[in-house]
Amino acid sequence: MITTALLAAALTVGAAPALPQDTQQATFGLTIRGITAGSLRLSGQVVDGRYAVSGALESGGLVGILRRIRYDASAQGRVADGRFVPSSYSERADNNGRTRSAQIDYRAGVPQVKAYDPPRARDEDDVPPSTQGGTVDPLTALYATLRDVPKGQECGRSLRIFDGRRATEIAFAAPRRQNGTTTCNGEFRRVAGYSAREMAEKSVFPFTITYQPAGTMMRVTQVRTDTVYGQARLTRR
């Protein structure tokens, strides 16, 4: 589903804070090894304890010239006890003209992989969805991570993520605050669903998230992380 570079660059989410009822939109530029690689756009809304979010990742710069990649995704669900609980997730990918799509629904918090188009055979490394109760989808994770939050609630705690095939985990260290800026360190960890070669290649990706004041809220302005492609950076535009 969502590419490893995007996951390692931006899937860094913990517990959700108290949520205002508003719509938030954000655009981030993605660079890898200092080279412009694309952009990430998010739009989300929380109303009466329900959330809905859409997002798009598109290649750009030199990467976009060499290879056209675009991912569009949407998710919705509810907020319970300060946590995002997805009810559905869908995505569509276009990789140099080769398109595919996927749909995940949730029943009592357990993901149900409903459709792949084109259909795909199960791989021996795939994680059974029935074992992934309480996980969130990739887009919900991105939204919860990159949205504005009240001061004092910038960093989260460990969270499990499932994308339909792979299980990952996010862990945060204590936040550091200085001169109005908050920095959060953490790790993105591959847990299951990866081949032995992929796990040997890299299983832990350190990251740093930087927040700056935005009115009465704190706003993510940059995410830095290791990826299998080198150092990556998301910068808010």
TrEMBL record:
Region Disordered, residue ranges: 114-137
Origin: domain of life: Bacteria
Sorted UniProt keywords: Signal
Name this protein carries in UniProt: DUF3108 domain-containing protein
Signal peptide from the UniProt entry: 1-20
